[in-house]
Design goal:
8 helices
Length: 182
């Protein structure tokens, strides 16, 4: 489990918990949305700081960005715990331009990922009251973030984080478009 420090568990928990419709393991559509949801989870909820120690957000062209999250998405995908449903870059239809390449990536937990998350939850709960409180806290926080933002459009999420965290907008190429300022 030591290889699952940093953003790996929050990503898995966000993909595991239900959204506002009550659907467990609903997907998250878009890399930007997933980045912003992890950012909100880190900055607005009092969950284990150790869980987020390796996540560093920096100002970027679309607001706050974490390279660690992108690296960990690739790691989790390679481990078979999450998938994107995205075609291989060498897929014939993709290469021939037959598919819409502007469709956002859709992240979802695999069956193997579900088993892994449930094992992590079970082990934390077996570790005693402290472990149970910590896992319940992060699951509740993850569920709250997912219910608030997963079905929201990306523009409203960007507007929310841009207004609440303006220091991360200094490199944004879409700041004025998002906030409607000139």
């Amino acid at each position: 489990m030591d290889s699952f420090k940093g953003p790996r568990l929050p990503i898995l928990f966000l993909l595991y918990v239900p959204d506002s419709t009550g659907k467990l393991m609903s997907s998250i559509k878009g890399a930007i949305k997933l980045q912003k949801m992890v950012f909100i989870l880190k900055n607005e909820y009092k969950v284990s700081r150790r869980t987020f120690t390796s996540i560093k957000f920096v100002p970027h062209k679309l607001g706050m960005y974490s390279k660690e999250i992108q690296d960990d998405i690739a790691f989790l995908k390679n481990m078979g715990l999450i998938d994107t449903g995205q075609k291989d870059e060498f897929d014939f239809d993709y290469l021939m331009g037959e598919e819409d390449i502007n469709v956002p990536i859709e992240y979802f937990l695999t069956g193997k990922g579900k088993i892994f998350v449930e094992k992590v939850i079970g082990e934390a709960r077996k570790a005693g009251k402290d472990g149970e409180e910590k896992i319940n806290k992060i699951l509740e926080a993850s569920e709250d973030v997912k219910k608030r933002f997963n079905l929201a459009n990306i523009r409203s999420i960007l507007k929310y984080v841009y207004q609440k965290y303006p220091r991360y907008t200094i490199k944004s190429e879409i700041l004025y478009d998002v906030l409607g300022k000139e």
